[in-house]
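Lab notebook page, bench 4
Experiment: in silico fold of construct C2
Operator: M.H.
Input chain length: 341 residues
Purpose: comparison with the prior construct
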Amino acid sequence: MQVGLVVAIGFAVAFALTNGFHDASNAIATLVATRAATPGQAVVLSAVFNMGGAVLLGTAVADTIGKIVTVPQAQMIPVVGAGLAGATAWNAITWWRGLPSSSGHALVGGLAGAAVVDGIVSGSGGLGSAQWGGFDGWHPTGVIGVLVALLISPLLGFAVAFLLLRLLRMMSRRWTTRWIRPVRGGGWIAAAGLSFSHGGNDAQKSMGVIAVLLLSSGQTTTMSVPLWAKVVTGLALTAGTALGGWRIVKTIGHRIFSLTPIDSLASQASSTAVILGASLIGAPVSTTQVVASSVVGVGGGRRRWKHVRWQIVREMGIAWLTTIPAAALMAVAVLLVWRAL
């Protein structure tokens, strides 16, 4: 196996690991914040259902991600490897700052930036080295389709959480303390569903680029994702959650809005619905963005806008806006070094 291929696959696994720092940890953030589960219990829950989603929930998202780069086959490994390196570096930087940025944005920025610059330097395509696309029915294609999905999904997370929290509060007016345990149990189910849908969406981002790398290197003849890639990316997501996810858990679970168990249930259930639906139509979305937006939606559903910590929301918004260009620049730097070797 080529050295470049091994390095690029290593970057794909590293990206999945840092994705676990960010997105996988969001699946359990509100469950831990409301003390419905201990951190250890939450990590085990996330591990099982992340892996289940990665292995069982199809490869529609992987197919979408895998078709973003359209450079010649001989240049595919350095371009994809550099894109992954840029996305991984940005994930690590924002994780260190405790900012829940989008791994999906980082990957799109890294891949598109490396592809375009490679096309310009080599004279093989320029802007045409990335598939810009749009939509094929409900299925997003190319950079534009992915960015639209990434833009719409947090708005849906906010709206669904707002409405669901209002509905739950109306239903709970006559609840007694005996409902506390069922609500906490519902939080466990919602967290499991969110972990499953996250595994089916975010793990597929790494799977998609691994499939591209294997195809371009002649290791496979189709874009099918091998079982080992599903297992490895699922394990990397879980390891990221266990090793480094607590910075993001603190931000999502405590710093945006002080959550109660019923708030956690509304946030997780709404996020699950949005991310699972996106996975089924092949739309790569950001678990970070959806969950964070749903927490803000819960604050709105309680009509406590002033209790939402808007400074944190602004910091997150700035991180989201700068993710694509920052990851692209980092990917370009890695690509230029890679080409020089």
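Observations: The chain has a mean pLDDT of 81. The two ends are 18 Å apart (CA to CA).
Next step: discuss at group meeting.
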